[in-house]
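Aim 2 progress update. The chain analyzed this quarter is reproduced below.
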Amino acid sequence: MDFLRKTTRTAGWMAINCQDGGVYVAHIQRAANTLPEVTLATFHGSSDPSVAATLIKSAKEWRANRYVCTTLVAGGEYQVLPVEAPNVPAEELKTAVRWRLKDMLDYPVDEATLDIMNIQQDKNTPAKNKPMYAVAARSKSIEACQSLFGQAKIALHAIDIPEMAQRNIAMLLKAEDRGVALLSFNAEGGLLTITFADTLYLSRRIEVTLSQLTQLGDEQKNACYEKITLELQRSLDYFDRQYNFITLSKLVLAPLAEAGAGLQEYMATNLYIPVEILNLETILDFSKVPALKDPKQQQRYFMALGAALRDEGQTSISLYNPLLLKQKNYFPAHTMAQSLGLIFIGIMLFYGYARHYVAEMKKQAAQSIEMHGSTQAKLAQLTTAPGAATTSKLLENEVAQSEMQLKARRQILEMIKKGNLGNTQGFSEYLRALSRQTTEGLWITRFQVSGAGDDMMISGRTLQPDQVPVFIHQLKQEKVMAGKTFGLLEMHTPAVVNGEVNAGNTRAPPPPHIEFNLHNTPPGQAQ
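Predicted structure tokens:
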């Protein structure tokens, strides 16, 4: 009875980062007045580029269903775009930003999943000129990511980006009310972020990978150092001009093991701000995972640790999109066939009972006619016989009663012939007519008919409102629907529950379908 047990989730975020030929997993718990504690850090190597099999296997080992999970989008699968904040209400902000991105993306904006984050400005900045960042990715990429984790039975609550993971680590560096520049390297290249408080102000990608810093000769390595330093100078100059109300305290170099010392020395000589090498042990508690005290391990787990530091109380983004989840088919074809079979059997049983009932009524009517004829003959015989004038009063009463029974049964027989007792033919033809309708993007949720079909209601849902008239036109071509008209059509959008939010702490969008109701007579006027 495992399905009856309620899973208790462990506090804190678990980050699952698929990179460098494997899966890096880190879990961090936060507590007041102490360093964030790393409770789990593990790596599962994979020879499969999709790491699907590795993710499925490893998820069972560390029981992912006990954690609140997040993951990171790969560097080339999203864009961080600066846009001017539209002057619209907060609930309409995403829609307005989406419209502005239509000329900035190299694919249709309708195929994008996006989130936004504000950039805190100086109090003297005009409100209409306030910038913000839009994070956009192809919905197909997000859907593939969600599907991968779905196969591994890992319930994602957020899909983050490396810039925000690096921002989370920068927030732990003591900067005394100043900004911090943080530079990291991995197989995708270099990433520079500049953070002040909980706001990411600038991010830049540098096309120098970790392997180039560790495997090249001195001459080639110096060329990489020069390229990195030049890009840093340009980025820092741009930041000074754009955000002159923020002073940078230092440039921090993420753990690079033996490759870090040479790069730190070169940048310290050529940049105007102090350059330090970060030791994550100074800002995180590694007592439960002592292997992370090694700078090499810190470099490998750097992004996973940053993602696990996610805090919904701070500025955050998420590309997780519930609308891209594959919906479970709670009413598959075989179940539908079984249900229709049971309905058909029920209709046939009702039809058989109705025929038997009508036959019995006809038989009783015939017996009444025969009895009436016999009584009339007997009465005629008695009236012609001697002493007819003294005909028994009891016999007259019997004749009168027989005539009343005959009249009543004739009325019942006449009602049966005219169909006034309702539908004696059953409702199977209506169901067959509905089953032949195959309008794309439209499905039936309720069908109700009574009597001889005079009171009929059809309810359903559609992804495109203009498909409803097409459905009505096709339905009226059926023989059983001949002469029937729909006097009332209602269409409405399902209401969103007040206060409902998605995993990104934003208001959930309304369902994508439209609900409709068809009545062949207005409610309250059905006969």
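Residues 323 and 511 are 9 Å apart (CA to CA). Confidence is low (pLDDT under 50) at residues 1-5. These observations will guide the mutagenesis experiments scheduled for the next reporting period.
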